[in-house]
Write a structure and sequence with these properties.
Elements: H1 3-25, E1 36-42, E2 51-52, E3 58-59, H2 61-72, E4 75-81, H3 84-93, E5 98-103, E6 113-114, E7 120-122, E8 139-145, H4 150-166, H5 170-179, H6 191-199, E9 202-208, E10 216-217, E11 223-224, H7 226-238, E12 241-247, H8 250-258, E13 264-269, H9 272-277, E14 280-282, E15 287-296, E16 306-308, H10 311-316, E17 327-329, H11 333-342, E18 347-351, H12 352-361, E19 367-368, E20 375-384, H13 388-402, H14 404-416, H15 424-430, H16 432-435, H17 439-469, H18 479-490, E21 499-506, H19 510-517, H20 519-534, E22 539-545, E23 550-557, H21 560-574, E24 576-579, E25 582-585, E26 589-594, H22 602-613, E27 620-622, H23 625-647, E28 650-659, E29 665-676, E30 680-682, H24 684-694, H25 697-717, E31 725-728, H26 739-750, E32 755-760, H27 769-784, E33 788-794, H28 802-806, E34 811-814, H29 816-823, H30 826-841, E35 845-849, H31 854-862, E36 867-869, E37 877-878, H32 879-889
Parallel strand pairs: 1-4, 1-5, 9-12, 9-13, 16-17, 16-18, 26-27, 29-31, 31-32, 32-33, 33-34, 34-35, 35-36
Antiparallel strand pairs: 2-3, 5-8, 6-8, 7-8, 10-11, 13-20, 14-20, 15-18, 15-19, 15-20, 21-23, 21-26, 22-23, 24-25, 28-29, 28-36, 28-37, 29-30
Helix pairs in contact: 1-4, 2-4, 7-13, 19-20, 29-30
């Protein structure tokens, strides 16, 4: 091939990749026949745990990661194993698109472009031949591409960012699958995702009928179980209808996916490579099933015969434990249990809850189980490749939003009611010879059956109650046990003016702590905390809920405020735990709720104590009715925030800035007010802090900025005078994906004349040097677009003076706290004057905010400050009032 022809071919590849990337970014879900293929170079088979089965499917952390990444990008992945040298040569020749699992080492740096986010990490040797081990993160591994393939690279990076946002613990989930690590298990949909759901109001689902309590038909012939609970919750949260068809096997379910009659499989094993062979992309796991062994009383397990059901589980788990001649396959659970009961088989592996149910039924009286977990498997939803690109991220967010506790609580409730489902018909069926005996022996047989029933019932009740009453992570009492125990104790009144209180302790950032140090650390901390709480003189009962980082106790005291101080002192003494050589501080919040007498419902008291935990005014809060109202208002605000923006209920008010000597208006600051149709008029203090926590502040900033730029453009077009208006920009924009692109679009439409951006120093108080440098780069780009940059609230806290050199600042805005401090302190007045001189020396305009008296105004003039802002000159006003104000103050 000639050089010109080769260049033409490369150009056509880049154009094709760019077109595909544009289609993906626009949110268009591609039909399976039109999907592109991502060619991935991987290490040789067996290196780093990569294997291939007889059907040609690859299994490994790297291949599973790249398959999921390809699904997010609307592509199919194909893998080419080879040595590093072979893969580099293939990449240079264009025979593959990327190499997976590459460290940042000299042979690759400068030659290829690296993904921004790692797909795993290497441990031990820092050379090229190293194994994947995410348990000890040492050297991150990435996928790399040629710089010439930039369009495809951009497409994969966009998919990688989306995948990281929807599956924050995806790497740990894969590591658990391949390295036995425990994975770490809220709902914000994008505009494109909401549009997709509106266009697809019905999700066609197929569910595999397994066993109670997971997926089964109840006594009324209705589909029920955990899978139905999951489908109902998805339908409720997403506002769609989930149309469910049921089948008897996974093969039937896969056939429904293949012929297009179903979009998703509601219950299938979380196995990415296996799912790929069935045209499916699995979501993150929604539950973990624990398997136990059931056996016949007195059976010999030296060389057992095992009754099997699921061929997939048999292939992956049981064949690793037993020889082929020990495995016998049965069509359903009942047939397998009959084989164990009769002696045709010795044991069978069932999910814990299923085993408990079958034993409770009494149809197999000689079968027992000690409840020991033998192995576990994760369950997920399989999404058809036809809709995976649009529906997979939505379901990932939904499962993360639901969390594990909703389904676990359903199973716990099912187990707690197991006694009510004991079938007399099954007992009669199991012992027909007793009921066919003569009338003379009927009384004796009945007594024997009743006696046996009572013993079995008591034993199983004790076993089930022990499971319900024990926190599986800590081995201590569970929150369900606490509800019953606290209700019984609080029913008796106290003397000496004492009263009962429920105290709930919670780790506010438990997901972050778990991600950094692992669930085992959280469980150890909760256990230590609860043990110490048992020794507190005011505590009566203690219980744990380690999966969400909660500890509960019942307290007795005469005064709630005194109890709050005792709780504060106790928690501050317990907020540390050793992790290796470090002593880690884990912040704890506490909520207190008085029970009264007669005592209120314990579950309601716990809900209100938990509500007090989330009140951010203090780490220890006593519940009051205002909290309930505030929580309701916050919920209403969050539900209405997007609608308010679409209705343009947010109003831009302008507060004038002026020349201290001439009293001329030289500018204004844009401030937001909310005139809600449902909530009435809201000042910014009611919604801005909440928007900063839930992330909507980013959209509100763009809303405010566009309205100000539109206002300025309209005044220029009408020939009216224009003064600069400053608009606040949140610190979150500094790390926001696509921020500069949106700003460039606004500049193209409206221009930057008369618009300033106000940033606070906190925008650069970031966790890493890389984040800080990125923020500085963003500000420099904004300045190049034509925006004037203001440093807001300067001097309000720890001021990093290096920012004055690193940032292209035009305005220094002194915080009101400096002005107030200078009124009664000559030293602070000198500081105020020097900071003003510093701003002037650096070529900046200096303005002070919060001026309310003429004395403050004269002091600023004496200190050399030229401009001001405050109620003395003008309060915030609507845009129409500001236009009138300008006519007399320019």
């Amino acid at each position: 091939m000639t050089g010109k022809a080769e260049t033409l071919v490369k150009g056509l590849r880049q154009v094709a990749a760019a077109v595909c990337c544009a289609l993906v970014l626009c949110g268009g879900a591609l039909h399976a026949d039109a999907r592109d293929v991502l060619r991935v170079g991987i290490r040789p088979l067996g290196d780093g745990g990569i294997t291939q089965d007889a059907q040609g499917n690859f299994y490994g952390l790297e291949t599973d990661f790249m398959q999921t990444l390809a699904s997010y990008a609307g592509m199919d992945a194909t893998f080419v194993p080879g040595t590093w040298e072979e893969n580099v040569a293939r990449l240079d020749a264009g025979d593959i698109d990327t190499i997976a699992g590459v460290p940042q080492s000299p042979p690759f740096l400068g030659r290829f472009i690296y993904a921004r986010l790692p797909l795993g990490a290497a441990h031990g040797d820092h050379g090229l031949m190293m194994s994947i081990e995410t348990q000890h993160l040492v050297t991150p591994l990435y996928y790399v591409m040629r710089p010439e393939n930039g369009a495809l690279f951009a497409r994969l990076e966009q998919a990688n960012d989306n995948m990281a946002a929807n599956r924050p613990h995806f790497i740990d989930d894969l590591a658990r699958m391949y390295r036995e690590r425990t994975p770490i298990p809220v709902l914000r949909l994008t505009a494109d995702e909401r549009a997709f759901l509106q266009q697809h109001p019905v999700i066609h689902a197929v569910a595999v009928l397994r066993e109670r309590p997971y997926a089964y038909y109840d006594e009324n012939g209705a589909f029920a179980g955990e899978v139905r609970k999951l489908a109902d919750r998805i339908a409720y949260d997403l506002g769609v209808m989930v149309d469910i068809q049921t089948v008897e096997s996974h093969e039937e379910a896969f056939h429904a996916i293949a012929d297009g009659t179903a979009d998703i499989v509601l219950n299938m094993d979380w196995d990415i490579s296996y799912a790929e062979t069935k045209g499916l992309s699995p979501t993150i796991p929604f539950d973990t099933y624990y398997y136990t062994v059931v056996k016949r009383r007195g059976s010999d397990l030296a060389h057992p015969v095992v009754a099997c059901l699921d061929s997939r589980m048999t292939d992956e788990v049981l064949r690793a434990r037993y020889a082929d001649e020990q495995l016998q396959t049965y069509p359903n659970i009942e047939a397998g249990l009959r084989a164990v009961q009769s002696g045709a088989a010795d044991l069978m592996f069932l999910r814990q809850e299923t085993a408990q149910y079958e034993i409770w039924q009494g149809a197999f009286p000689d079968i027992v189980s000690d409840g020991t977990v033998v192995f576990s498997r994760q369950e997920s939803i399989g999404v058809s490749k036809r809709v995976a690109q649009s529906l997979l991220p939505i379901l990932d967010k939904e499962i993360g939003y639901i969390g594990p506790n909703v389904l676990k609580d359903y199973l716990a409730t099912y187990d707690g009611d197991a006694a009510k489902r004991l079938s007399l018909r099954s007992l009669i069926y199991a012992y027909p010879f007793y009921f066919l005996g003569g009338l003379s022996a009927a009384a004796v047989v009945a007594l024997l059956l009743i006696y046996r029933y009572i013993r079995v019932r008591r034993r199983h009740t004790d076993e089930i109650q022990a499971l319900v009453d024990t926190d599986s992570y800590t081995g201590l009492h569970s929150h369900r046990w606490f509800e019953h125990g606290a209700a019984e104790i609080a029913a008796a009144p106290l003397t000496d003016g004492h009263a009962w209180y429920v105290v709930a302790f919670g780790i506010p950032n438990v997901d972050t702590i778990t991600g950094m140090y692992g669930q085992e650390t959280v469980s150890r901390f909760v256990t230590k905390f609860a043990r110490a709480l048992e020794r507190a003189p005011w505590a009566r009962l203690a219980a744990t809920h380690a999966s969400i980082g909660h500890v509960l106790c019942l307290a007795a005291t005469a005064d709630a405020e005194v109890l709050a101080e005792e709780v504060r002192a106790f928690k501050e003494a317990q907020e540390y735990i050793a992790v290796g050589a470090m002593n880690v501080h884990i912040r704890v919040r506490a909520g207190i709720r008085a029970l009264g007498f007669p005592p209120m419902d314990i579950r309601k008291a716990l809900e209100q104590a938990n509500l007090a935990i989330h009140d951010e005014e203090d780490d220890v809060r006593v519940y009051n009715e205002e909290m309930q109202q505030e929580a309701l208002q916050k919920s209403q605000i969050e539900n209405l925030q997007q609608v308010a923006a679409e209705r343009e209920e947010f109003q831009i008010w302008l507060q004038p800035k002026y020349d201290l000597k001439t009293k001329r208006c030289i500018g204004a600051e844009a401030l937001v007010r909310w005139q809600s149709k449902e909530l009435g008029f809201l000042p910014p203090g009611k919604f801005i802090p909440l928007f900063e926590r839930n992330g909507f502040i980013s959209e509100l900033d763009f809303y405010n900025l566009e309205h100000v730029m539109k206002y300025q453009k309209a005044r220029r077009a009408a020939g009216l005078p224009v003064v600069p208006i400053s608009v606040n920009q949140s610190r979150y924009h500094m790390q926001e994906q696509g921020y500069l692109a949106r700003m460039e679009a606004l500049v193209t439409r409206y221009g930057t004349d008369g618009v300033e951006l106000e940033l606070t120093e906190t925008a650069f108080d970031l966790a890493s040097r890389e984040q800080r440098e990125n923020a500085l780069t963003v500000v420099a780009a904004l300045h190049e677009l034509g925006f004037r940059i203001d440093m807001d609230d300067f001097g309000s806290g720890y001021s990093d003076l290096t920012l004055l050199d690193a940032l292209p600042l035009d305005v220094m805005k002194l915080d009101r706290s400096l002005l107030l401090a200078s009124e009664n302190s000559d030293r602070m007045k000198s500081v105020l004057a020097r900071m003003t001189d510093l701003g002037h020396a650096l070529g900046m305009t200096v303005i002070c905010e919060g001026i309310e008296t003429e004395e403050q105004e004269q002091m600023l003039i004496a200190c050399g400050c030229e401009h001001g802002q405050g109620y003395l000159y003008g309060k915030p006003m609507p845009q129409e009032a500001f236009a009138t104000f300008l006519e007399t103050h320019m």
